[in-house]
Amino acid sequence: MKILVGCFKVINQSYYNNSIPAFLETHQDQTLGKLADSHHFSSLEDTQINAWKEQIRNLKEQLKNVRAGEIFFEFSIPRMGKRVDVVLLIEGIVFVIEYKTGARIYHRDGIDQVVDYALDLKNFHLGSHNKYIVPILVCTNATFISNRLYWYEDKVSKPLLSNGTNLSDLIFRALSDMPQENRIGNFEGYSWAESGYKPTPTIVEAAQALYQGHSVEEISRSDAGAENLTLTTDCIYHIIAHSKQHRRKSICFVTGVPGAGKTLAGLNISTRRTEDTEEHAVFLSGNGPLVKVLKEALARDEVALTKARGEKIYKNEALQKVAAFIQNIHHFRDEGLKSEAAPVENIVVFDEAQRAWNRSHAKKFMVQKRGATEFDISEPEFLISLMDRKQDWCTIICLIGGGQEINTGEAGLSEWFDALNKRFRHWDIYHSCEVSNRNYSWGQNLVSKLSGLNATKEEALHLAVSLRSYRAENLSKFVGAVIDGNAMNAKNVYPSLEKYHLVLTRDIKKAREWLREKSRGTERFGLLASSGGIRLKPEGIHIKSSIEPEVWFLNGRKDVRSSYYLEEVATEFDIQGLELDWTAVCWDADFRRVKDKWSLHAFKGTKWQNINDPYKRVYLANAYRVLLTRARQGMVIFVPKGDERDYTRPPSFYDETYEFLKYCGISEI
Known about the structure:
With 669 residues, the chain is an alpha/beta fold. It is built from 25 helices and 25 strands. The chain folds into three domains: 191 residues, no CATH class; 207 residues, Rossmann fold (3-Layer(aba) Sandwich); 194 residues, no CATH class. 48% of the residues are buried.
């Protein structure tokens, strides 16, 4: 809602908004007073006041020849939880300006920051989708630098650098450079600001926002995919309320395509329900890297936010606090072995529940690694039995990813249903309409396993639209066709990926260069490869060298261990459940085309061996499915040329794979 106060238009998105002519006529103290009044913190530091004074002074000088347009101070960038210093709307161009008052050097961090703001507006702010956007970093004490104006294909320019004295020149150069046919005149600032914001945060960004108290509606898109997510969440809340009211024990099976928001839904439930002391909730995952990355990100965030409030918290304290709602599922299981007591939680979210172990693998692990003398049940059966100890009520939410089982002993959905049939027929079961889909059923008749049980089908428990990539909602369909070996289907889906950057190369150097060229700001990129890609080593890709997930995913460009350096490679075990903006998927001969079919192999000792075990074949196919669905904005697939002198990687092991991918529609670089 717009509120008029004197000559000021106050909107939620900014601290101050006005027409540029009105801003120029307004006394500095009035503008400064409005900014101070809109500041949300109880104390306003002198450094911030002085920064605003410098910005106002500089803009009054540099904009004196601008006859029309809108100006915003401290414009909100919701997905990032930050505010850009100044936004100008002039003749169809959005100028995003970040000031570094007193700065003598144009640091990379500042450049990345203003580029991130510009890209966030371009990608997620509806009013900016079709606009030209110019990011400008102003370092007031830096030396003058000559700029070259360059537009990317998405109408965002390369960042311009200014010390403030040439800001007017940069603005008018951009205006004159824009093609005449694209000049749309000045547009109404309020309508632009209020046009809507539809972010698709990474799972790390989502976890941070939810942990800080934001709702899932605030941080997700408002289109059909996000509506589906809201319906799923509401359905689960209803089941929880019904279980609590009627003192029932219930289990929900939530299915979804890769990137549809299953983990986001689970995190939302665990963070919201921890606020209710009668409904203790915890988010559990057997995905070790995911848990490490999320806990580390939230702990770092907690330390930074606490510091911003003028308080102090140690990293270990922050990690302990985070552990109250996100844990490794194996720790939860081991605690249940130590005691006969019921868990304190009434609500448990099992992420990637299809990866829970079958009976033989669970027994082997518990005897060899945990020293258990009696353990002869599957992991799903044991986990349900832990919650069955509750005397009043409980709800288990199982998040199931289709085609995501990637490791030996991972049971899929059938073990959960078998356990319910065997010991827990008194439980209420709620499942999506997709449990009979072959991606979840492994060819078994799962519906028949529910016969005679108190099972209810809920359509809202399936998430059908990928939210991972705002550029490629059909990426999972394309990848599914590739993994199925159906080139014609893949070719038919490919045109729907027009906004997604997908290319092929046989040169790893080109792949690295492509990633660096495509990435802007702090967009994260990295190398991915199958854990079976042993013979990528001659290409400088060592899958045996383990990464530190929290470092690889979270640390900056200056850390050689981070994904940015393109030296360390993540496998399907590291990347599952997480995502990057740009990836290079390195394709080895473990999953190769031979006579128009996929041929699956494992490298043992000094040679490749055929994989005949049906479960291991599924695991390997799913490994590539995971790798090919991790990039939010674009991906380059690297297929080596091979070497005639090396019998472990002759060209014939790779050529047909490359030609198949080309036939699917992927272009070469």
